[in-house]
Records
---
Amino acid sequence: MKIRTRLVLYFLLLAIVPLTFVNVIVLFRSGESIEEQAVASARASLKQINNNLDVYMSDLLSIAKVIVLDRSIQQWIRQSDRLPSADAKQLEKMYGDELSVRYFLNAQKGSRPYIQGIYLLSVGTEEDVTLSAGTDYDLDTALFSGRDWWRRAVSQGERMFIEPHHADYYRSRTNQELSVNLLYPIERGDLRKWVMVRMDAEVMRREIENGIGYPGQKVGLFNQNGSLLLGEEIEGNESKEAVVIRQTSEVTGWTLVARIPYDQLFESSRDMRNMIFTMTVIASLLGLLLALTLSHHVLKPLRLLGNAIRTTMKGQFHNRVPILSNDEIGDLSISYNQMLDTLEALMKQVVEEERAKKDAEMKALQYQINPHFLYNTLNSVQWLAVMKGVPEIKELVASLIRLLQSSLGKKGPFQTVAEELEDVRNYVRIQQYRFGEDLHIEFQVDPEAQSCKVPRLILQPLVENSIFHGFEDGKGHIWIEVKRDDGKLLISITDDGAGMSEEQLARLMERDDAFSGKYSGIGIRHVAEKIERLYGPPYGIQILSEIGQGTKVIIRLPFQEEDHHVESRDR
């Protein structure tokens, strides 16, 4: 086991295990308290709903009591029991009193939008029910005698809350709203006079449907017999899956029941456990991070020494180990650095010897000139002198001299792009004297590339290859483009000659005399080898050719200014 692994394990045992033990104890202790609080909170919420419902019921009672205790209402009731008088003034007074009663009843209703109607009812000797006064006169009292709740109220003679039901006892109303009624006797012992206050049960339904704030809850309102009045049906008592709580109204005697799944009721307890677990994990990760940091700091000198040794094994001797301490590891690092200094000195000596050898090879390669080229050039001069006898011989010989001076490398192994292109022009001018004006060449040169340094004599062999390998009798068109592209110098030589197959292209790159009987010059392979030795990948030559479609040669070189010194990569 590595030293770092052991250090991390020791730290975790000393820090994380005690922390986890303490968190587990806190988890169980706090969980019980949170669950008790959750049940108490649910009971309080259900009690609040029950209190809200009692407020509505108590309001019905208050309205009925205000009506019963009002003297004008009592006096009007007593007068209404008398036989109607034929006297016009008496009738007018009774009509005015009835309007006053109706205004009074509407005033009680108007401030309470959930009150749907207030009515004064009278029971006749034959148990028939009539409407004495009310907020409206659409009530069909003839239907009351057939209602169970009416018969129970009359028989008991006490105030009674009528359970939620559809108000189907109106003449013109098609929408039978769900209602809760209060029947209240006007005088004790006299079961002939009643106050009926009708309330919209929708407000109670909304209170119950809003619930107590737990997902998956069921809340229902039940009467004394356990029948569902509003809300959802709740079956069974408390179980392992859910808790059932109840609140009974002191006003109506109805019971509000709620059933809450344990997983929802104790969600806060579960959140607390998750939080404690998350904190434990975070603390463990922080502890692990601290252990890794400490081990990294302690073992850093050894790691640096190991990395340096592995780098040296790959043949790289420049990596020195920093001295971070004055202990035994520091002494070992000092000895290792001294060993590298000795090895680097020996390697430098070997590299210098190899560089001298490669420079000699490059010079030998630079001065290789195909004797066939000189022979054919002089033959062209002789032919021109015999056939023409004109001063063009002077220009031809001058172009030849300039080309020979450049190829002999008297100015060093490198020259500018402008100088290299001038050599190409001299060479093409010589060939144009031989093949005539059917040999064309065009140049497209980026101005900033004119001063870029390139190896001497890399374009003339490629142009020579196009003329003698691609064209028939030297007739064709050559385009040379030089540009800078993303820190590189790109040179393309394109011709519209016969093109080459893949097999011909492979043979051309393998040897210079691939096409017998035609010029090869210094050779494409030698140009590619020169660039590879000087720069290495990703620089070099790429040839694209197809039979009948011509040939394109792309040269990729580093973009180097004129005063930039280039050394062979083999050094």
---
Amino acid sequence: MQPREGVVGHLTGACYPSHYEIVIMKFIQPAKYLYLMILMAALGPQLMAQPNVQGQWTTMSRTMPINPIHVSLLNNGQVLVVAGSGNNPPNKNLQAAIWNPQTGTTSTQTVSWDMFCNGAVVLPDGRVFINGGTQQYNPFFGLPNTSVFDPVDNTFIDLPPTLHGRWYPTVITLGDGRVMTFSGLNETGSTNSTVEIFASTSGTWSPQYPANFTPPLYPRLHLLPSGKVFYSGSTPRSRYFFPSSHSWSSVIATTNYGGTRTYGSSVLLPLTPANNYKPVVMLLGGGNPATATTETIDLSATTPVWQWGPPMSQPRIEMNAVILPNGKVLAIGGSAQDENASTASYNADLYDPVTNTFSSAGSNAFPRLYHSVALLLPDATIWLAGSNPKRGTYEPHMEIYQPSYLFNPDGSLAVRPAITNAPTTVGWGGNFTVQTPDAATISSVVLVKAGSTTHAFDMDQRLVGLSYVVADSGNLKVTGPPNSNIAPPGYYLLFLLNSAGVPSVASFVQVTAGPDFTITTSPPQQATVPGGTATYTVQLAPSAGYSGTVNLSAINPPTGATATFNPTSISGRGTSALAVNTNGLNPPNFPATFPFTVSATDGTLTRSDTVNLIVNSPGDFSLAASPGSLTITRGGASGQSTITLSPSNGFVGAVNFTVTGSPGPKIIATVSPTSLPGSGTTTLTVLAQTGSVTGNFKLTITGTSGTIVHTTAVNLTVQ
């Protein structure tokens, strides 16, 4: 995609009318409007050259080698990019990448499962938590898989899965550091209307907590200072989730827009001492055709009510909204019609929560539609990437926005306040010192959560203002955030802003209760046969300066099995090999699953991880379908195929069956029975209802026994 030409920016200097004033003038003062257009034609290039008014957009020389669908800022300043299959069904080269803003280089790597359309946040210890993905396209079915990415060694480690699939889930960090996941399509294509909560301290998922409504995909969620989670959209009826009782409220407010703000954005506006950490949420754009409208809701009110906000300069679906260090919100990208580049919204708008107004932030160069992403970087610039309105192609060009706060009136770069020393960890409510030679000129100290963005929403975005006093000419005495609901544990960008509004380059600060660690056992389930040995790797990830030694043990391994660690303890960061021998284990049936706990202890501090040992039946099995092809008529009789399970080499395990590949909800494919005890036949029945699609399709029948998986296919023709 080539950048468009002839774009005229907004005139937003103090002497010039705003975009909105110009639009009004066109209709009520046409003579004055014509004069203004002539003046703009003459002076526009000079005015647009004033980066201190609108900021400055730059297209980077290097391009992104994979489709940047999901992005997370790491605590080393680099960016994790996840594509998975990249919205390209034939693509089996599942990929992720690390983009380095300092060098502009990108290094790619493969991933073990399709993370396309996941939910992600950065965990309190700095690892990236990834939940859900794509089991199949057209129709989409979701995966239950979960992984973490460790930025220390750039590796992905699998975690226990959720109970059911999640394609398009939202995940957020709660005040106690646990991670909540909600919504997404499950493994049969239905909406997963439950909440599950993951605790990294134990490596376990909670039970499912059902909602009292069916959520949209990628619901907009925000953790509030009260500890409640606010659901703001995209549908119009807002609710609370109560983590303490695992329950949902009834509808607490309804948007003025009234419709679904599809792929609009939602932002928790800055929480600061000046506003008493008052939670206000803003909705921007969305819908198809898109709207330019915005709304805000004050959730500190006794009866919260959505209020209209100022409109953006252009309607936006598939937009991004990024909080800047000065508390303003940058609204960028999107289009008036979904996935239609000819209606792309190039104008960038800057919202000021203090004045409740928008101003111009210039214009970017490339259409940024479906699967576009944006992140605040540590140097206080914004990175804009991606756009994938057509399957199999994406926009590889990346852009950087330098906000106006980085420039002097003459267009030169402003002198930035400096952080010469800051703590790597801070707690809640305590004091800490930030060294800066600019202490006397500092007007604001803020924390901005490291972002994780996909599908027009940053799942953990928040800015927390901090109280401070000038201790002396080189030091600020800063008070940490009041509590973990205002600033959930994790990594933040610490910015200092001077009296001119110029931000420093950020220092990464971990908000935490103190030194800690987590352990992760990989894989989360491992299989063997009777008399065999299953092996795992136990990884210790230290956090907040932890440098102690942990002793490892297995809690409640299956009777007859023995578990050994090598080494038996880990100091600092490291791994241990866990071997579970099953010589004395005699399961009555196969496959048999045995959960047990891996425990790591240092004094009174214990962290654990729950894993599964699966004992498969000896031998193997195969599947065959007869007939291998079916032809059925819409609204007519069903077709059937017999699936034969044939054991070999003494296989006696139970086999469970599933069928995938159905091209739509009106073509119903089932197997009965859904399980066989080691051998026998099951029947595939396919029915095409009136109004279903026609054509040729491939149905895949999968048989699973523990970790032994085989498939057979039936070719389906619907007339």
---
Amino acid sequence: MRTPVVDRPDAPFALPNLQRRIISLTVYLGFSALGVGVINGLAQALNYAGIDIFRYYPGLRTYYEGLTVHGVFNVIILTFAFANGFVSLTTARGLNRPLNTGLLVAALVSLLIGSLLAAGAILSGHASVLYTFYAPLQAHWTFYLGLAFIVVSTWITSLNIFLAVAAWRREHPGQRIPLLAFISACTYIFWDIASLGVAVEVVGFLLPWSLGILPATDPMLDRTLFWFTGHPIVYFWLLPVYISWYAMIPRQVGGSLFSDTAVRIVFLMFLVIIPIGLHHQFVDPGISPKLKFAIAFLTFIVFLPSLLTAFSVMYALEIGSRRNGGTGVIAWFFHLPWSDPSVAAQLLAMLGFMLGGITGLMNASYTINLEIHNTTFVPGHFHLTVGTAVALSYMGIAYWMVPYFEQKDLWNRKFALAQSWIYFIGVLIFARGLISGGLAGMPRRTAISLIDYPKPPGWFEAGIMTGVGGSMMFIGAAMFFFEIFMTTFFSRRTEIPDIPFTDTIEPPAAAGFAVNLDRFRYWIVAAIVLCVIIYGPVIGRHIPPNFISPGNANY
């Protein structure tokens, strides 16, 4: 007997209109940030093709200011806003109960204040420190305060989610948490632990340093604290997408998830394997080679939940296809509803993510990393992950979520479908250019269009591919914004009472070990213990901090 992933699936969705509007504004704030980031992204792509259009951007002072805008707006503001809104929505539907309106408003206000503060510092030329904001580069204090507000918005969202889950548990003693609510809560438990590194870095060191309270900074400590959060943040971008892939896409294609337990295990694996950010510091001094090797091994383990995801989601897709007449060993994949723009965008995102996972394993390999570190191979990789698996999935989710928010039909399904394909083809060309350029030694974070020396072999062709692919991505993103604009303001009114959610063939176990999966405290303790084991010796070497660098305020 198939089991829905939500509580009371046949009852009306108990989300008040005011809460739906607050959640929609949160998501729209994220998409607004994406628009700004995409505009700057075009200049970054053409830069590698040797075309300088930075001069035509009003108020843009330097290449690095534009690169900071692109990074912060796309991978911090967009992703945090989307997660806050979308995961609040999935929690409410999973439990079929409203959230706390005051906390929804507080999270939105905190996110908005933080975004305005950070954006103001960047756009005024006072925070050209890139999205990693490594010390001793120093930004204006408003940039760090803005980041703090943005992170606080996620903690407020966490509190809202946890209060809702706790209230549901009190009302349903002895029952398993509905799967959609479980994976939503697990996403934010994961983030709450992972965010502690950057919170300590920003509030404890960078903000007081930028205000003159601390005379100097400890760059190695700050860098280590950043990467405690900096790699797990990738999964905070990705886990909301996994929520859709697991709990929504199967329903959209007519399929079902095979196992409730398998999905819970995948999310708990991500929760436990938090402390793998040290693989971003393979070239850093002060970290023992033995520990670096151990981190490389631990990073490879994170590939396991991704493989489980590939199996579970592909199985669900195949079930849906065969229910609707799909046949063959491979042909069933082409019988999926590719004409549905929401489905097509996310299927294409999955295909892109396979390449992102392969290149990610290369980045995590200790010896290969030494070859490709700080080359364009790195942005080539993460444009296949955050630029495809995440961004394109966000677009696909928006194709049912915005109509739900606005209670309107999607404006033009064929236009939306074309948008997904143009963006997807563009990102494949774009990433191919960056990866090949990186293997030829082309540096990342460099104004290639402004260099005055002959380009080494391989750079020219790689740059052309990057420019062409990036231009197609820009066109695809512009089409997405046009589709959303037309849907919001000019599409036909309709009634959409609920969001898509799937069911599982294997129901949640009522007894045995699987019941312990819902006892979050066990997994939280396991995650914290592993963090202490891995990061304790590294951070311990920097206690007390060695404040040796007064910093460089490049404004």
---
Amino acid sequence: MDAHQRLQQDERFYEDYDSISIKELILTIWGFRRWIVILGFAATLLVVGVGAVLYLLQEKYPVTKLSFQLEFDSAEKGQYPNGTPFSSSDILVTPVLKEVYQLNDLEKYMSFSNFKGSLSVIQRNDELRLLEYRYAAKLEDRKLSVEQRERLETEFREKKKSLMTANYELVFAGDESSAPLPPTLRAKVLNDLLSTWAEYAQSVKGVTQYDIALVSRDILRPEDIETEDYPVVMDMLRSTLKRVLDDIDKVMKVPGASVFRLPESGLSLLDLRYRTLDIESYRLNPMLAIVGAAWASGNGRHTGEYLRHRITELKMKAQDADARIKVYEKALKTYVQGGGIDAVGNEIAGALQAAPPGAGVHPFGSNVMPQIGESFLDNLIGMVKANLDIEFRRSLTQKIIEVGLEKARIDSDLNYYAQILKNIEDAEKLGAGKLAADGARQEIRRSIAAIYDNLMQTISQIRTIYEGLSQANLNAASTLYSLTKPVYFTVEKALTTQRLIPYLVVAWVLLQGCILLGVLIASAFMKPGGKQPATA
């Protein structure tokens, strides 16, 4: 057989075997049906056997669960009673875990990282899950009209609200590297975690109280007023008194604060405010008249320098406030005259660009602006861009008022320090021999001690009213949680049947595919009549 004949024979062979039809595939599979059934059954037995071995021989580990429910109403919204964000992960924050870890001496059993990794919080709501499945099936219907779909969604949301409960499950799973913990200790750890978290949330984060920052009694210590000169002590008391008044104003904004009274004394916030103002008017300020007569300290030069520094600082703040008022007034005037927001922004930006780096700027012809720099003008430009028309005018007017009030407070402080300095300088001119020392000094000491005690008492009373309002308005329970079920002990496996079955199904499908592929490959070499591929 020459080469040409062999080439034609090979072409006919490949034409026979390359032309595949559906009919031939079905006939081939039908011809091997017995083998397919036998091998398929064997593959099924193999998959089931391997799955059973894997499931039965895998290592088991203990699991302890504790079900609980959050008692504050805003838990479903992801908020604590005071409105701050809440997450179930807050229960397992590091400070809580460390305290429980040390409290129960768990270092004997596992490392802290293993302890942290073995804990989890799972939200449980079987009724809500069933409702979601039910409505998901209804909403999958493509024949629904838009109105029907909207009605179903509205109905689902209404039913979902009624089923929203803050039910959780705290899970303590075993760890392969850890020594086994006694069941009683595992149960104690879970209970300690919840109680420690509740205490941490209330005492450290203050979640059952309004998110208001108040001063404490530590703002001014007794030793502070014993070691400083009288003018400095008076300044410290005056600053503390202002902060107390600010705290009263903060708490007054809480709903119900105006009618709330202390249980024992019956005092209200308004009473505390008036009493604090009386302390300033009738006890603190009158000491200015006698502080010069009582000036017998050997540290007079130091105190004089302190007062002069405060006066200089306040003068600079006053100049800064004046300059800011001029900027706001000029911006408002430019806008009202028809310049528009863009003109105001361009004028301010031009003033900013014209200023040398790090130096104060002098926009709109202002002669004094020692404290104004890029941050102030950037904020003003942002306000220009963020507000429109009436809101822009209102915001500028409000800024002018705020800075004007700040300027008034600065002027008041400036006059206060100037008067103290004048009294001291007058006393120094009289000479040490003419100071009415003992009587005046004792009177000032008694007044300072009385003012200090009154301020500390007022701080405590403000705190009591604040806590009472928080308790009354936020409806915060004495405990943030309650247990819904006792501790549950079980033994679980890492590979559950729910996770194993999908893997087994995939393996079974692959094996069936391999069987069919093997049948087709075998049929390619076993043509009817014993026809075999031609060889050279």
